[in-house]
Model the fold of this input.
Amino acid sequence: MSGVLLLGGSGFLGRHVAARLAARNIPVSVPTRRRERAKHLLVLPTVEVVEADVGDDATLTALCAGKDGVVNLVGILKGGNGEPYGAGFARVHAELPARVGHAAVAAGVPRLVHVSALKAASDAPSGYLRSKAAGEAAMLVTMPQATIFRPSVIFGAGDSFLSMFAALLRRLPVVPLAAADARFQPVWVGNVADAIVEALLRPEAAGRTFELCGPSEYTLRQLVEYVGTVIGRKRLVIGLSQPLSWLQAFALEMVGGPMTRDNLKSMSVPSVCEAGCRLPFGLEPAYLEAIAPTYLK
Done:
């Protein structure tokens, strides 16, 4: 490939995708409003960090020009209040994918990969999942040959999931846990990054949607207790009732904490692959227990 535009390349998943593309000697352009946010990518030999505002359509089309592929990883977990899914979710998850699709078509880009979320649906209970579904639909209208990935929660070095629980367990003697029975099938960031790169390179991936899950399913309580065991901070985990979970989410939302009421609604839908885990392109799913101790400790 002569070049890939990587949107969201400075984030957790983006840095892994950038590293894998660089390892294949593929030129990568990572746009960012502030170059210092992506300075960790400058050590990669084929990665160029470009100061640019992808909120501008002309700029976005110019960034796509001459590229063989575009990857959109941009996403947020907190989107604000409002209908149908919050102003932030609408702008980032619904409107941006549509604009990326238009820009890719205008620039003649043959391959487009978009990362959505497992259980995204127009009738999902949370604004996050509904907005993700709207983004998928908007992109496919413009570019039907786009490849869509729907991962469960992603873990790995630098994540904000298991690492967040590790930080809490180091500070709190008791953990009051909202939605303790919520179900997840966490997928390793390396598997997700590998799938994205393969989708860019394989013609048979065009126009397809893939769910990405790890090999094992856990409740949120099990994950928190496992993290405590790994870091040597076993704590009492108290699962909160639905009303208390809602109250905790509301309080954390008001102070800008790690959970919102919309996050709680997302967790009411099991983030698991109903058909088990069959990663595409022959990829072997990594076990959480093999990876998590390497960075949580």
User: Anything to note?
Assistant: The chain is about 40% helix and 15% strand.
